[in-house]
Amino acid sequence: MSTVKETVEVDVPVHTAYNQWTQFEEFPRFMEGVEEVRQVDDRHNHWTTKIGGTRREFDTEIVDQLADERITWRTTSGDTQQKGTVRFERLDDTHTRVELVMDIEPSGAVEKVADVLGTIDRRVKGDMKRFKEYVEERGSESGAWRGRIRPGDAGPSL
Fold this sequence. Notes:
- The chain is of the alpha+beta class.
- It has three helices and seven strands.
- A seven-stranded antiparallel sheet has the order 1-7-6-5-4-3-2.
- A hairpin with a 4-residue loop joins strand 2 and strand 3 (44-51).
């Protein structure tokens, strides 16, 4: 399993950065290779990606979510196994540090080669840069989900 870590500082308040990240269906606007994210419910998403000509579909589950602080997820189906956390740190009233840490188990020859060559690291770095540009250009979030999901919960609490 490979660990990828990337941090960006965005010129928006912490609540704006966090709120925008909760809009999973907008991820294709800034994540390379992500064709679609369909939010099934507050806790589950279905992803369609196309990387290196290979289309993959998988499901993720949010296992921990605390407004303005963090979102942690894991895959629950599909060939690629991953888990990760995105953290939001208020730097001041108008600046936020966003840190993404992902553990990825590449599947298939193409993904394993991409991992060895550092392609996955570069893709995540580009995704974070594009998130920064996306949220800063908007100036405000396109939506928000402020619920709380705790590890082991049967469902979100508001």
